[in-house]
Amino acid sequence: MRFSAFISVLRSVGPVVIGISLGFTLSLLSVNWTEEACYLDGKQGEDVTSGHEGQLKGARKPNSISTINDVESEEDFEPRIVPYKQVQQSPTKKVFRAKYISTELGMRERLFVGVLTSKNTISTLGVAVNRTISHHLDTVIFFTGMRNRKVPHGMFVVSHGDERLIWNMFQNIKYILDHYINEYDWFYFVQDDAYTEADRIKALVDHLSMDRELYMGSPEEFIGGEMEGKYCYGGFGYILSRTLLLRLQPFLENCRNDILSARPDEWLGRCIIDYTNTNCVSEYQGLQYHHYELGKNSDPSKEQSEEFKKALTVHPVSDPEQMYRLHRYFTEIELQKTYDEIAKLQAEIKNVSVVAFEGNRSSQWPVGISPPFEPKSRFEVLKWEYFTEEEIYSCVDGSPKCELQGIDRMDVADVIEVAMVELNKKYKPVLHLKKQQLINGYRRFDPVRGMEYTLDLQLEVVNQKGHSRSITKRVHLVRPLSRIEIIPMPYVTEATRIHIIIPLTLQDRVHVDHFLEVFAANAFETSENAILTFLFIYDPVEAQQVNQNDIFSGVKTQINTYERKYPTVKIPWISVKTETPSQIKFMDIISKKHPVDSLFFLANVNTNVNSEFLNRCRMNSINNWQAFFPIHFQDFNPDVAYHNQQHPSTVDLVKDAGHFDRRSFEEACFYNSDYMTTRTRMVADVQENEEILETLDIFDMFLKYSGLHVFRAVEPALHQQYSYQACNPRLSEDIFHRCVQSNWEGLGSRSQLAMLLFEQEQGNST
């Protein structure tokens, strides 16, 4: 027992004892056993041991180096002064920094596409090629030999001025070497009578090594078979690497002078083979250049071969219509592949979520869509809107119920149709479902994931035996937000001069005094970069009496008064005679009297204009890009809004004081050049129907005839006093109806009008 206890203690203590002993032993071995020289009383004493010839045999200090001549060198040392010489600094060289970081790092784009076209086909097949591939690829340039021909819109065309095919091919390669060789890794050439599946070409070059000398396409034997090697047939297109073109660059002139050929693709192939020893290949690194030769009058939808379905290029294409049919066919194939990949990913997410911490609850529905927004307080709870197939119970104007129309009606119909398609897809072939009616519908907009829908559908269910019954089924749908895209906007400044146009009729004279008072304080006294122009509108009777009784004489006197008060200010005015006031007719006159680059603000005499709004007018009106139609804040009728109360001197932007008048389109900011372009586009319609100038306003004109963005938004800085508008029945029905609606909605809020009616009923009852 004692021995076993001793052994157990020894086992636990033994390693510690051995470790301590080993540490002491190693420490003793590393000690220096010689003594250093010591000094007594500040004088050098004798060393413990002396060596021959007076050398010290004592141990030296660590990190010191002893030499034979140490003592002698210390005795012979004489200090000397080294004179200071100022270093001459060479002028600093200016460091060149590239404009883009990609240039400085040598980063290049992957694919350049050159389309070989001609003057006879550029407006037909060339346009078709551009429409089918340009929005898939970064750079597409069309090469042709024509000169002084009108270029189709949206195409970048390089003309060499010569119709010789070999010369044009030489110029194409030379143009790329001069302009694009340092910007791209791969160069793809194709004729305009071939269809190219752009996404597949991009995928192909993305998997190729950029440092290879590669000549890839459809290999063909040379005509006659005398020359070894193969060239790439131009009809199916071919890919050239940047490395290959750089190696070919010094010999390009030799190819032009020495190689004779009738075909440009054969000439280029002989040049590449002769000077780079590179043959055309259709397969490289396991990647295949698939192509397909299309028969005459063939229908793409009836082609069933696998080679056709896998093709990168299809040749020959006879006309643009066939090009578009091919594009539709291959787009449908790629779209179906995308749907299959989405379904596969959704299935994988479901399978993985089973083993997650929260189980299936960790995968949100629909799979792959962001989870719903979670409110942090009762004020952040998203509101559901109730609707049926005919009505919606959440209206813009605050009404409890309104008719479902326009885009909302289309939205509901589309959601119901999708729900029925998905239900039948789920239950077929066992059951077939038919919609009888929508019982309840709910929708809400979730800013995180999109529009959510809940539908209670009454369905007729028919089984395989033909028996049917009616059931109620609840379905949930989500219309997810698509990929957000940032659209670059042209640069604008706040220094642009604005020409403010104020049309005046006989009824508007009473408001001029207040308008000029406010405008002078906001613009004249602050030297705002704006010019005020009045447009005096006379009817035929008033125009005949202008010399005896000018209805605008008082306004002209006020204008002269302000011009004398502010010597640097000039207020021009223009007189117009017309029976039917029309914005387009007025602007036709004003447009001719101003430069093309003028910025107009068409306003109303009741509008209070300030610098804040004028700056927003400058920022939101973009030449050749966008027109701005602000929604002003209009005061309610003070007799209604402040019934039995004192009218305030200033009005705040609150719901009981006024509203944003969405029915009014009087104010507009746009450039004269955009107006003139839009006006030109409606000439043909005006020749057929001259009344269109009276039935349309500026907003409708820009909306229907211009290619501009029409930007319409509420504008809190644009304030308009209450005034009853005289609606002209000669204008179009829509404009007249909008004017009447604006007058009605401008009287007061619903609660204020209801209170007046209540008081009136109370008074009548008593």
From TrEMBL:
Annotated localization: Golgi apparatus, Golgi stack membrane
Coiled-coil region: none
Annotated segments matching region Disordered: 44-69
Keyword terms of this UniProt record: Glycoprotein, Golgi apparatus, Membrane, Signal-anchor, Transferase, Transmembrane, Transmembrane helix
A GO molecular-function annotation: glucuronosyl-N-acetylgalactosaminyl-proteoglycan 4-beta-N-acetylgalactosaminyltransferase activity
EC number(s) given by UniProt: 2.4.1.-
GO cellular component: Golgi cisterna membrane
Pfam families in alphabetical order: CHGN
Topology term for the membrane: Single-pass type II membrane protein
Transmembrane segments: 12-33
Alphabetical list of InterPro entries matching this protein: Chond_GalNAc, CS_glycosyltransferase
Statement: the UniProt record of this protein carries the keyword Transmembrane helix: yes
Gene3D superfamilies hit by this protein: 3.90.550.50
Enzyme class: transferase
Family: Belongs to the chondroitin N-acetylgalactosaminyltransferase family.
Annotated protein name in UniProt: Hexosyltransferase
Organism, as annotated: Cyclopterus lumpus
